Amino acid sequence: MKALVYNGPYDVSVETVPDARIEQPNDALVRITTTNICGSDLHMYEGRSTVESGKILGHENMGIVEDTGPGVTRIKPGDRVSVPFNIACGSCRNCLDGWTAFCLRVNPTEGVDGAAYGYANMGPYDGGQAELLRVPHADFNLLELPQGREHENDFTMLSDIFPTGWHGTELAGQRAGDTVAVFGGGPVGLLAAHSAVLRGAARVFVVDKEADRLALAESIGATPVDFSAADPVEQILDATHGRGADCGVEAVGYQAHDPSGTEHPELVLDNLVKAVRTTGGIGVVGVYVPEDPEAADEGAKHGRIGFDYGTFFSKGQHMGTGQCPVLRYNRGLRDLIIAGRATPSFLVSHEMSLDDAPEGYRHFDKRDDGWTKVLLRPGS
Ligand SMILES: NC(=O)c1ccc[n+]([C@@H]2O[C@H](COP(=O)([O-])OP(=O)(O)OC[C@H]3O[C@@H](n4cnc5c(N)ncnc54)[C@H](O)[C@@H]3O)[C@@H](O)[C@H]2O)c1
Ligand SMILES: [Zn+2]
Ligand SMILES: [Zn+2]
C-alpha cells in the first residue's frame, strides 16, 4: 500500500510499504477514504518530537471497514466508520471512567498511558495517512457513520479536532451565556469556537494573527482578536468592560510565539490567566510535552514551563488539560452534524490525493495564507 512516511525534520514522503493487516482477533482493517493533516503532526514534522523515522503518520482517519478479526462482532466489513485518534482497550480503569485518552493497556512505552495512531510516544501503531489502517479493539473504538459519502468533510473532523475543540470548552467549564476566549485560530481553536457557540456562548473571542483564520472565526459568529495588532489581553478586557472572559480555551500549544515569531511556551497560559475573570476556567488542549530538546530555555527542554501560577491561584481559577478522550463526545457530535446543527467542515481549505501530501505538509506548516485544513484522499 501507499503511505506517508516520516523520514526526518521537514522530510516526509509517500512510499510503498507492506499492507496493514489484521494482527489480533479484535482488530479491524479500514480502507481510508479521508485522512487529515493535523497541527499535532507539525510538531513531529518540525523535528520537535522523538518520533522515529519510518513511522507512518496520520491520526485523523475515516473510511470503510475492509475486514475484521474473528473477535469482532459489532463492526462489519462495509461499515463506514470514524476512527478516534485514541486507541483504547475499553476495559481498563481509565477507559471505564471515560478517559480513553489515558488507556492503561495499549501503550507499552514506560510511563505513558494512552496510545494513538502514527504519533510520537503514543505506542507502536502506524498512522492512517495511507490506503489501509489497522484498528485495534475495533468494536470498542470505531464509530459507525451513515452509509454513502454524505457529510464526508464534516465527519472527518470527528476523529480528533471537533471532539478536541469541544473538550476544551468542557475542561473550561463553559456554561450557556458565557463569554469564551479561545487562543489559537487553527483548526482546533476554530472548532473550540464552533463548540462554544453550539453550547450557548453569549460571546466568543478567537485570538490569532493569521488573517485568513481570523476571517473564518468571524464567519462562525466569533469576534476576531489579532494579537499582532495589539496586546490580546487588553483587547479582551476592553471589550468586556475590564471584567474578562468567563472562561478560556488554549488551542495553541508549546510552540506559542509572539508577533515576531519568537517562541515563548508560557505566553498563552499567561494571557489566559489575565484574560479570564476570577474563578473562571481554562481548558488546555494545545499540546505541551515533557521533553522538547529544541526548546529555547533549559527548563522548557524538560517540560518546565513557568507560567503565572501566582495570579492563577489568586484569581481562584481552575485548569483542565490533556489529550481529548474522543469517545466521550463523538457520537453526540456526529448526530449534531446529521441534524444539520454542526458544520465543522467550514474550515476545510484543501482536498488532495495522498501523493500530494508532502506539498500539503509544506504549506500547512508555514501557515501559508488559505491553508487552514488539509484533507487527503488515499483512494483518489
Ligand atoms: N489535546 C488534544 O487532544 C489535541 C488534539 C489535536 C490537536 N492538539 C493540539 O492543539 C494545538 C492546535 O492544533 P491546530 O491543529 O489548531 O494547530 P495550528 O498550529 O494550525 O494552530 C495553532 C494556531 O495558534 C496560533 N498562535 C501561535 N501563537 C499564538 C499566540 N501567542 N496567541 C494566539 N494564537 C497563537 C498560530 O498562528 C496558529 O494559527 C496543537 O498544539 C495541537 O498539537 C491537541
Ligand atoms: Zn489531530
Ligand atoms: Zn483501556
TrEMBL record:
Stored Gene3D superfamilies: Medium-chain alcohol dehydrogenases, catalytic domain, NAD(P)-binding Rossmann-like Domain
Needed cofactors: Zn(2+)
Residue span, Alcohol dehydrogenase-like N-terminal domain: 24-143
Keywords carried by this UniProt record: Metal-binding, NAD, Oxidoreductase, Zinc
One term of GO molecular function: zinc ion binding
Homology family: Belongs to the zinc-containing alcohol dehydrogenase family.
Name the UniProt record assigns to this protein: Glutathione-independent formaldehyde dehydrogenase
All copies of domain Alcohol dehydrogenase-like C-terminal, residue ranges: 187-290
Pfam families with a match to the protein in the record: ADH_N, ADH_zinc_N
